[in-house]
Amino acid sequence: MNLSFLPALFFVHLAAVITPGANFLVVSNHALVYSRRAGLMTVRGVVTGSTFYVLSGIIGFTIIISQSPALIALLRIVGAVYFSYMGMQLIRAGLTPIQHHNTTNRVSNILTDLQAYRVGLMTALANPASALYFLSLFTTFIPLSAAAIEKIITGGMLLLITFTWYTFLALTCSSSQVQGFYRHSERWMKLIFGLVWLALALKLATGA
Question: I need a labelling partner for 162 at 20 to 30 A (CA). Which of 13, 105, 127, 206 fits?
């Protein structure tokens, strides 16, 4: 068994997940706006979506995606529409005057476990760049002659890094200090997050 490529792959993937993107936005937003539990459930959805792409990389399905311009274009359009929807929702919320909620109103602002998980999952799956990213990892770092067990170990490491980082992010953003800062700048934060979502949608649509 040859796993000499794992250290380099570890740092490449760690740098990739730390870099803010769609997954970063959805996890941090849910942890800030709703609760620690919502953030952690969103992480589970993101990891599930990442698992799909890791498995696709292992079995070579991402190669099929990469060789089909029409399919990539379709996935980009779907992803761009979804990201635009997320951005407009936040911008609309940021432009709406914030009222001081009482306990009853706060209950209606709760995101259920299923909703949080679903948004995390859809965010991870809606980005075809993730498929191409994992394809590049598997084709660049893992030899073609690699055994199935080596690919499974590699995929497990990638998912562990993903889960650990986004869990840390959810725990950090749901801390009382960070949430306190968010409450004092909620409208601006929503507008900023919304604009970032739209920027990601534009980047995805144009293939930039």
Answer: 206
